[in-house]
Structure prediction request, 314 residues.
Amino acid sequence: MKEKNQLPRQYRILLVEDEPANIQMIAGCLSTDYILAIAKTRKKALELLSTSSFDLMLLDIQLPDGNGFEICQQVVANREKYGNISIIFMTSLDSPDDEARGLSLGGSDYIHKPVNAVVLRARVKLQIQLFRKNELLEHLTCFDGLTEIPNRRAFDDQLEKEWHRARRERKALSLAILDIDYFKQYNDLYGHPAGDQCLRIMAANLTTSFVRNSDFIARYGGEEFAVILYDTDLETAIQLMEKSLAAFIGKNIEHQGSVINACVTFSAGICTATPEADTFNNFLNTADKELYQAKAQGRARICGKYLSGPQEKT
Ligand SMILES: Nc1nc2c(ncn2[C@@H]2O[C@H](COP(=O)(O)OP(=O)(O)OP(=O)(O)O)[C@@H](O)[C@H]2O)c(=O)[nH]1
Prediction:
């Protein structure tokens, strides 16, 4: 989840339609306001859906190699693969049973052919507005307003997902919990707005330190942050975190209240586990204990532990 701020963007529509006259009319209606892709078959539609991301699909039901109901079912059952696309059926099947079926399968709207250009534009606009509101809501529930990185709730979900993925794929999973040193003193000395700015710099620094697609950073709470590193062993996790600490110290945020450094630092505890052999709670607790160790050993450092396996190291 490397999403950033919600900037205005152009929405992408997939038109699944085989009739050339309809394609021409619909493309004429929508292509100035939206990015439009066209699939004339079920096969092409599924191929495009799995390789590009779309916000809305206009879906004909009778296609040369299948039908729109099946496409809708497949997309709804595999959201991880196809994304949270809205679906509008657009068809000459105009019986109430067909319409009810389309809506019960997960379609958001059902338009009867022949399509009226004005009505089509209005209905597409409405669905896009709903989609945009959902996007915003999702952003608000998953992202921290101050630092614009994922929040604790998103972290909890992601950690559970990655734990199960690592168990399935027999990979190592590393978790780091980070805490800014002497942050209370920083707030007391420089004020809360400066403290907030420091948290933003911390988040930005983590974003540039951990760049793999599977790396996940979050604000864990207060002045604590967390990093999940999939398929990453302890040595690598420690090396990356040390680089990140050096880069953060390099920001030179003055901190006269710190006993250990002239500028702001952080401490981190890392736990690496192979999930088939360990328990989830132990994993989280160990990362926390390692953070405690890093604080106890003088701060501005990283402590880590393998929960199991041959390379146990503290
Ligand atoms: N500015 C600001 N401060 C915050 C925020 N969230 C938590 N804090 C502050 O972070 C400070 C954390 O203090 P402590 O838990 O005592 O930790 P510390 O001073 O960093 O001490 P050590 O971790 O032991 O080095 C508290 O003063 C909180 O008020 C925030 O969103 N903005």
